[in-house]
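It is worth pausing here to work through a concrete case rather than discussing structure prediction in the abstract. The textbook approach is simple: state the sequence, then state the predicted structure, then interpret. We follow exactly that order.
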Amino acid sequence: MCCCLTAPWPAADGDIPHDPLCPQAPCPPGTGAQNNPANAMVSRYDYWQLNEHRRRSEELGGTLLARLIRAKMLAAAVVDSDQLSTDVVTGSARITFALDRQPAETRVLYHWSYPDDAHRRLRVGSPLGVTLIGMSAGQSSGWLDGSGTPRSVHVLSVAPSAP
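Step two, the predicted structure:
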């Protein structure tokens, strides 16, 4: 997706084009259309939950997050849970990832209820959570943090669900 997330609609080839008004033109290496995780897969359940995050974000005035969620929903393939590979990030996965080539960290994704590991949780309804959901181990992507700063994330490993 475009690194600035102002182009939420897929082009004819399925990729989300770079927005010509983006201040990052062209997208920095490792972000935007050049590294769109077009093969992102989400379960029907996670897709429904993403839509709820989008709806709530719009109600609260979080337009950047709502755009990010909309772009993820448009780019992702939606499948039944039993069709997902075990290395795909889901809404309850324990994932190890690296941000901007920093040391790896492990977090537990969640939609609405906090996981037991309170210090290492990551809400799906956050810019990083939305970016990660549907990605696979070994995949990298660009994303915008809460202040709109372009960053990168690399998924190192995925455990199918939090213990």
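Step three, interpretation. Strands lie at 41-43, 77-79, 94-99, 105-110, 121-123, 140-144, 150-159. Confidence is low (pLDDT under 50) at residues 1-38.
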